[in-house]
Specification:
Blueprint lengths: L6 H12 L2 H6 L1 E9 L2 E4 L1 H15 L3 E10 L2 E9 L7 E10 L2 E8 L1
Parallel strand pairs: 1-6
Antiparallel strand pairs: 1-2, 3-4, 4-5, 5-6
């Protein structure tokens, strides 16, 4: 199932799937916050390194968004994620806060 995503969120999933760490960092604001697996990362360099680290640890991960909704200023995307990581495959929820054409905040949860 294909869902219609806001442009910046679509750019995030494209960069996560096929992009470089720099391409992924570029979809965020300079002071963006990413919360994932109990960690909070702030800024482009931390986000760039996050992609380097999870790619080295888990290899290529496939993410297929199948649900999107917006409430209280956050866009929630639920996606089916497969890869070489414990618990794969799993459906994860991505909570985005957008700022113009960039992502200001992202929290990833089960």
């Amino acid at each position: 199932m294909t869902v219609k995503l806001p442009e910046s969120i679509e750019a995030y999933f494209a960069a996560e799937h096929d992009g470089s760490p720099d391409e992924l960092a570029a979809v965020f604001t300079e002071k963006a916050i990413v919360k994932d697996a109990g960690e909070s990362l702030v800024g482009h360099e931390a986000i760039r390194q996050w992609k380097v680290d999870y790619t080295q640890k888990y290899g290529h991960v496939t993410t297929e968004p199948f649900f999107v909704t917006t409430e209280n200023g956050k866009t929630q995307v639920t996606a089916h994620v497969t890869g070489n990581f414990p618990g794969s495959p799993v459906d994860l929820r991505y909570f985005f806060v957008l700022a113009g054409d960039k992502i200001a905040e992202l929290e990833i949860t089960v």
